[in-house]
Fold this protein.
Amino acid sequence: MWRGTEEGAFQAYEVPRLESQTVLDAVTYIQRMLDPTLAYRFACRVGVCGSCAMTVNGRARWTCRTHIDKVTDAEGRVEIAPLRNLPVVRDLVTDMAPFFDKWARARGRFVGTATRADDFARVRPDSPARRLADAAIECIGCGVCYSGCDVVTWNPDYLGPAALNRAWTLVNDERDVDNRARLAAVSGDAGCHACHTHLTCTERCPKRLSPTASIAGLKRAAARAALRGELGE
Ligand code: SF4
Ligand code: SF4
Ligand code: FES
């Protein structure tokens, strides 16, 4: 297990095996029983909050839903490290600020016009835009896709799969009125056109979302907006 900050080293611990034990259970055992100075992050333990993501044997995973049996080698060993592509605060904890700053840069915030005096908006569940938005809305902000994206590694300015996936949900939200600015924000050099369609994000997303498909949708929407002359210079 990784100990330290950007500088550090792997350290070995022995953890008793239990039935249905997850990687997060093993990390928790180490922190509670072997070394209380170990830093790691979790909240829900049931795959909802997205805070427990770590690199397990070189691949980002949500650790509360990853059974240790599935990731140990023949000798029963597993390597656990912090998420890639983010600054390491300490041990298994990364600084998620750059990740969520990119959601803000992609204008991933709903902008509506309704007031308390208005009735609820009625968006048909079978409308095409609603289906596209629903397909991408279950993101838990875990950072697994971001950690696995090589374009983020090559270009730290790249908005990345999660922020672009979020932008796509809003592009398809017919109540939102910020799409012109949003499409301009995601079409710069570090936006959707930088995606190389590697599909790593889609293969690894624990919620089975497809940021790759969302990014492809953004590329088409941005191209249409550019043809209409809506993106400015
Ligand atoms: S499909 Fe695009 S966003 Fe997803 S991992 Fe590949 S380059 Fe990154
Ligand atoms: S798109 Fe998937 S992998 Fe990426 S942050 Fe959201 S839930 Fe996690
Ligand atoms: S602890 Fe909440 S998703 Fe794992």
User: Anything to note?
Assistant: The radius of gyration is 20 Å. The longest helix spans residues 211-227.
